[in-house]
């Protein structure tokens, strides 16, 4: 009778001590500003992966009224086996089922490049860019174990942002007008 609880406790302890594969998918840069019509390049990278990654995939969403996704370019130096840039739907602001795989003797681990996203700024506004898991292409290690992935987001601000020189010129003009008014009142 006492052996059963002891075995259960030992099993739970072993399971809690086992290494758990994980990593993070991020977008770089995480914040960007652009004017309408500008091209915007955002890199998708893996960071802090604890296991050797054999492949994976992701989905992406963005504000279709602000951005247009022109292309997805998978890093084929890292992911040489089978890959796909996924399905771009600019009407709904989604990219579905991007996937990539490697069969090299030395698989990616730690930090590595995955893909480059090429956007065009369409109209003024702010667009969050959100990564999410692909149901059909989960991240896996070389032992075919699933890897828990944390998906980070980014943001693109499209609109007229005054240049520092323009702001300085406007402030000096305002100071000149105020000085002129002060002299006029004193006279």
Order of SSEs, N→C? HEEEEEEEEEEEEEH
Number of strand segments: 13
Secondary structural class? alpha+beta
Low-confidence stretches: 12-18
- Helicity, as a percent range: 10-25%
Shape designation: elongated
Largest sheet: 8 strands, mixed
What fraction strand? over 45%
Q: Could you report the average pLDDT, rounded to the nearest whole number?
A: 87
Rg to the nearest angstrom?
25 Å
How many alpha or pi helices? 2
Q: Terminal Cα separation, in Å?
A: 105 Å
How would you characterize this protein structure?
The structure is a single chain. 20% of the residues lie in helices and 45% in strands. It has 187 residues and is an alpha+beta fold. Residues 12-18 have low confidence and may be disordered.
Fill in the keyword field for this structure.
elongated; 187 residues; alpha+beta; eight-stranded mixed sheet; single chain; five-stranded mixed sheet; 2 helices
Which helices and strands appear, and what pairs or packs with what?
Elements: H1 3-17, E1 22-28, E2 31-34, E3 39-49, E4 53-61, E5 67-74, E6 83-84, E7 87-89, E8 94-101, E9 110-121, E10 125-133, E11 140-141, E12 148-151, E13 153-158, H2 164-186
Parallel strand pairs: 1-12, 2-13
Antiparallel strand pairs: 1-3, 3-9, 4-8, 4-10, 4-11, 5-9, 6-8, 7-8, 10-13
